[in-house]
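Sequence only, no structure available. Ideas?
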Amino acid sequence: MKKLTDEELQGLVEKATAGDRQSLETVILSVQDSVFNLSLRMLGTFQDAEDAAQDILLKIITNLSSFRGESSFSTWVFRIAVNHLINYKKHMFAKAPLSFEFYGEDIKNGRIGDVPDLTQNVEKTVLAEELKLSCTNVMLQCLDPESRCIFILGTMFQVDSRVAGDILGITPEAYRKRLSRVRSKMADFLKEYCGEYGDGTCRCMNRVNYAIQNHRINPAQLDFMAASPAETMLEVKEAMEKIDDLAQEFSFCKTYQSPEQLKGFIREFLDGTLLSVVKNTQEV
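Reply:
I predicted one. Tokens follow.
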């Protein structure tokens, strides 16, 4: 759907809170991709991102009447999403946190030559692309939640420092300083270890079977490759290849569409009895 202006969204929100179902659906459809992509980068896996995005979209619906237009609607949505995701404890990496040290040690010492062929007749080049996209996404889990959020807002969504500071409850100056530090940290790691974007020895093609053995990718379920149409995948790949030097261009991984299950969940919710409960709550 076409990108809506703040004025258009404000009008739709007013209609939605007055009980117009079509306006409510349009509002939610306008933000669901952003909510899903933010969730995916913050949490690392498609399943966790979908679960969290459902929670966030329901929060948006149930709190819609509290939107006063004092900021843009997207800023208001990001604030709800960020508050939910920074404190989210139900995702896989909350139970098994990663670190750059662990990642680097695995790259240096992982016994990739000892693993048999596990590709299940899937083209190895396809699996290597899946690993590349998955690895870059999961690497974000080496950052603490707030630093991860700062990196995602600043480099993937390119949110203005004043807006990002408002979302996170810090000054624009503090946000810019932290963004610079975390960008450098990510860039230094890529430069040292990654053979795709830096001077390291790690090559996705060589680590495909090792990644399958360690459940990092699944030939039967290629989430990253399946989630984007071919032309979008090309855009992502080209954007990812901008990562060099101190990596001031980290504009990768922001073009996935919401899974059909998430879209279906919202439509079922809007068609179901729960919507009347939300309306009644808003009228109280």
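Residues 229-254 have pLDDT under 50 and may be disordered.
Hope that gets you unstuck.
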